Amino acid sequence: MAWLNSIWGGLSILAATFVSTAAIAYWNVSRGGAHHYFFDPKHNLHPSLKQEGGDFGQHAGRYQDLSKFAITISAAAIAFLVNTLINNQLASSPFGAKVAAIAPIACVFFSGSILCLILFVFLQTYFYEEYCHSPDHSSYTPLKYAISSSFGITGLIAFVIGFARLGIHLFG
């Protein structure tokens, strides 16, 4: 169980989360035999779907705002942990000892959250721009969908795990 509290254990959890969410997302999108995925519902020609669907840009803004919020809070949590470790008075207190014990693994999850969410925002923007400039809107493949979605989901899961581990260790 000590392995799960190590930096390698945290990285392994993040890698397993990324790979499993990518596999699920890829399977979910490609199971119907589709070779590409539509960002904007209005481009889907399937007769059972409405053709007057909207643009993805509004949804992207909400996804990216949530990502920016989690990035900001994760960075603040890392700053809190580092500041607590550097502060000599708190380091000798029981609270400081608890922070020192959980800081490495919590920083792995918060750093992983930041990295994954930055990659999610970047890839989502890049793939959407590529999609918008594609003549037939077929550039967004199931693999691109799986990678982009996995970075977003893994980033949010890392964010939650980081705060859960921190809260349980400090106050549990």
Attribute tags:
172 residues, mainly alpha
Summary of the model, kept short:
With 172 residues, the protein is an all-alpha fold. It has five helices and no strands.
Question: How would you portray this structure in words?
Answer:
74% of the residues lie in helices and 0% in strands. By secondary structure, it is an all-alpha fold. The chain has one domain (7-28, 57-171). It is elongated. The mean pLDDT is 85.
Query: Main β-sheet: number of strands, strand sense, barrel status?
Result: none
Given helix and strand content, the structural type is mainly alpha
The share of residues in helices is over 70%
- Our count of helices gives 5
Number of strands: 0
Weakly predicted, low-confidence segments:
none
Count of the separate structural domains: 1
Shape: elongated
Distance between the termini: 18 Å
Topology of helices and strands:
Elements: H1 7-30, H2 57-86, H3 88-91, H4 94-132, H5 142-171
Helix pairs in contact: 1-4, 1-5, 2-4, 4-5
